[in-house]
Design a protein that fits this description.
Length: 443
Amino acid sequence: MMLHHSRRFFTSSTRLCSSPILAIRKEDKSMWERRAPLSPRHVESLVKQGIKVLVQPSTHRVYPMSEYVKVGAEETSNIEKADVILGVKEVPIASLIPKKIYVFFSHTIKGQKHNMPLLDEILSKNICLIDYERLVSNKEQRLVAFGKYAGIAGMINVLSGLGTRLLALGYHTPFIYGAPAHNYPSSSAAKKALKTIGNHIQDGVLPKGICPLIFTFTGSGNVSQGAQEVFQVLPHEYVSPNDLMDVKRTGGNRKLYATVVHRENYLVRKDGKPYNEQHFLEHPTLYRSNFAEKIAPFTTCLVNGVFWKPGNPRLMTKQDANTLLPNFFPLMKSDSQLLAVCDISADIEGSLEFSSECTTIDEPFVLYNPHLERVTRNPFSAEQGILMTTVDNLPAQLPGEATDYFGSCLKPFLLDFLSINLDLPLESQNIDEATLRVHDTAL
């Protein structure tokens, strides 16, 4: 079963079984995956509450094993005695232990084909899967997520990639001095480097032929906020989506420009009536996006953090992208200037239909030519195209901060997870029914 929690459901009256055991598994999906669901500080608090914590040893994890042992965790490769097993990314099928409660990002809730074998195995082994993506508020806002650090890392990355892309097109800019997020020991170190880049921008060194540079942020959640936190280190001015045409015509080269768009800024009813949020949530198919007409033509870099699900109108289609690619270089003010897309949402063929694959930390960028619907693996050539980055594990580039943040979000749920008895109906257990819904994982 997969549990969907409509809001936080930790209560002081929750009673645990005797000597509950929690395990933190070793991450093994990628060499870059250095995150953990809990930090030693979180584990110390749980141990003090009488919870036994098992931790599989890993030399990849950002926090060394010794720090977990120091606060009372037990180092062991065998976690079969655990009642609840925590991870970050998908668990290999061969490693799944029957009749356990697993908590991790399964990437199955939208019916992702590549993980259906994993879901089949979870069902066949009678495993209770709690997916972090379904720990949401009654307004469908995620409560346990790395989102902020996805936004921070994604923004750091795209600024660096934009510098190299512009250089390939014949323009030296201060962005070339930036680096990918994992090259910095912390987000603070990255921001310090960006401040130096910002000083160069204020000095007026950005080539006027490519200015103004306009960054468009979609969404209002943690992803968008994290990306904007980084952007705001640079000299900037926020403008209304309705003023983009004027900014493109009159904007200068000593600062960057930004606009934040929400659904009401680009969704219109097909029958011509005014946008209504509740009506959209109930009838998404009655709406279409005019983002490609109203926002994208004035955007240099799109930072996409919008939530999307099947049935919702796409932010942009492949045909939309085809109308936006400049017809020639060098760039001129009269042309569309969509140079880069940082799709932090990483929904393949989702809100951006032309986002056709996830890129990786090793190779974060590709060049997409919408005229040919072709992806080029040499993103920093002088060919026409839109620089795309769709890394789906961005917080792994800032593993320490991401682990601290995530663990603080997750910890309030753990006592309830440990109280679940798989041999009894959920309705008969001391879990608030108003906050718990059970969904068939067969989707």
